[in-house]
Design goal:
12-stranded antiparallel β-barrel; two-stranded antiparallel ribbon; alpha+beta
Length: 386
Amino acid sequence: MKFPVYSKTLYPVLAVALAAFPFNVAAQDGDNPLIPDAVEEVVDETVDSMEKSTDEVVDTVGGRVAAEHRTTEGNLSVYFENDLFAGSDQDYTNGTRLSWLSRNLSGEEMPRISRTLREAFNFGYGDDIRMNYGFSLQQLMFTPSDISVSELITDDRPYAGWTAIGLSLHAKTLNTIRSLELSLGVVGESAYAESTQDWVHDWRDIPKAQGWDNQLHDELAVNIFFNTQRRYRTDALVIPGLEWDLLPRHGVAVGNVLTAANLGMAVRVGYNLPENFADQKLSPTAYNQEVYYDDKGRKIRKGNFSLYLFGGADAQAKAWDIFLDGNTTGDSHNVTKDYFVGSLEAGLGMRLWSTHLTYTHTFRTQEFRTQKDDPEFGSIAVTIPF
């Protein structure tokens, strides 16, 4: 509620203006003959007290602006991806992610485990840096193109599931954010991807996949992901409120799930663009990062509503992908992967107060030599204060 803040600020200011103005005018020519001395003393004391209170309130408000990055609440984001949005049920067939992000913190306010991670990677140092930490839970699943066959399909990708928890660290300025996520999970039957898919297929009353007995075997999955994103804002376009910005990004992944590098760019065009570094689709460092302050420390206020279109492109070079190369320990099914993969995305986003909703449609090039179709899937992301 904003009312208490306004009342504490406005009441002393109005009191000073109403009480002080007539007497200040009279004081220019000496004592006011219409006002008794005793009353004038009381008024002077009241004015002094009011002025002092006003100064304190102004200082307090200024302190809020400087410190609000520590008191702003965190947020919770839910990501859901599925190829059913593209009318298929194959390849990367489903992904879900739940990610929570802390409020803005100084380095000293971070939890001990986050500070340890920060020191280990020499991450996020500088006077103008604002820090966040986060936790995530995600599950991805992959199937071959023909899920009605129970036998191993040797020229198609393996059945695979990955379930993991993540601890992330984020360092941001007004125009740049660097993210690091340490992921720990499991690939294989213990990821329960088969159970999740069966439940969804039962709920939608569609046939179940028959080949999960051929999935990758259980393997501990450890990965670390680095990502950097920049934001180039532009002045408003010809139509008032219509804006656009550019968000180039690059990242590196190292681990037994994925070892790769990626480079990409997104552009947003719309009304009253939100001030954030948002991941419109699921990724290993997918969070919604609000930017609350400009480069002069002033709180950014963008109104209560945003509506925009966005598009982007990514290129990825893969050295290792467990979902195509197979298990790193023991024998397992695998296919010959393409080392370079590209993707295009387009979507629509909306913000109402602090709640964000986006839909993204992604078109990806083939990921392995014998893949029959180019992958295609849709993504829904919702972020709420939490």
